[in-house]
Design goal:
284 residues, alpha/beta, TIM Barrel, 2 domains, 10 strands
Length: 284
């Protein structure tokens, strides 16, 4: 399960060394926005070291955010990912299935076999989200609020103006059985604001959220994990419906509320998520 995906600039060694201690489910070594143009080559050169540093100390999923298609860095970023043994790529500014096809073409040329989290950051990308999700090798869709706001000529000060595109990206991901990753929260000292935005994302169907600072990881992990209250409810639902089935009934009453097959399936998913997160924590 991918609850928290922490961006770490690949060229900043102290951040790379700290990444295994953060508790993030995934570390996204960044070659794009958090790396200035003057340091792009250095970041690529350090990618192999950074990947090995994290692998040797944790069981976190490793990914790399490359520079977008059309930049002079794209091909060499994919080559560096292949050489570093990283097979999950966050592809920024993904506008359509043709971008996935182009990435696979270039990856083949440089000897890489990659799985992709497509980062959707434009109106065109949102409208093409379902087609992007159906492309071979795509394992997740992510929404990027800030570039989306830029492309719409809007300010990213409110989530209200991105509710529809944010929802459409999550819907497209779930329609194809993919991971849905929510936009980063930029205010580093506002953990309550982060919590509120993460809860919104969870309600929209997102599985997790990008983090831009280690302090955000515990909040994200907590929000996207079943709470103790959720687990207690799930256990009670399973218990009362198992008992009901023994008497030939398909529904039952739980604390004044009718529960049936759909509640049973939701409860089972909650319990499976709890088990998966427990296993994940034991590996880190």
């Amino acid at each position: 399960m991918l609850r928290s995906l922490l961006f770490v600039p690949a060229n900043v060694e102290r951040f790379v060394r700290k990444a295994p201690e953060t508790g993030a489910d995934a570390v996204v070594l960044d070659l794009e926005d958090s790396v200035p143009e003057s340091a792009k080559t250095d970041a690529r050169a350090k990618l192999g070291w950074a990947a090995e540093e994290i692998r040797s100390r944790s069981g976190q999923l490793l990914a790399v955010r490359v520079n977008s298609i059309g930049t002079p860095h794209f091909r060499e970023d994919l080559r560096a990912a292949a050489e570093a043994g990283i097979d999950v790529v966050v592809l920024p500014k993904c506008d359509g299935p043709e971008d996935i096809s182009r990435m696979r073409e270039v990856a083949s040329e440089v000897g890489a076999t990659l799985r992709v989290i497509a980062l959707i950051e434009s109106p065109r990308g949102v409208l093409a989200a379902q087609n992007i999700a159906s492309e071979e090798g795509v394992i997740g869709l992510a929404f990027g609020k800030f570039d989306f706001a830029l492309s719409m000529g809007a300010l990213p000060s409110s989530n209200l103006n991105v509710l529809v595109p944010r929802s459409l990206v999550a819907i497209a991901a779930k329609a194809h059985g993919l991971v849905a990753v929510d936009t980063p929260y930029a205010a580093l000292n506002d953990l309550e604001g982060l919590r509120a935005e993460a809860l919104e994302a969870k309600a929209l169907g997102y599985d997790g959220k990008f983090a831009v600072h280690p302090s955000q990881v515990p909040v994200i992990n907590e929000v996207f994990s079943p709470s103790e209250e959720d687990v207690r409810w799930a256990e009670m639902v399973v218990e009362v419906l198992d008992q009901a089935r023994k008497t030939g009934r398909a529904s039952a009453e739980l604390q004044g509320t009718m529960v049936d097959e759909v509640h049973y399936r939701i409860a089972k998913r909650v319990l499976e998520m709890r088990s998966a997160h427990s296993r994940s924590e034991s590996v880190k």
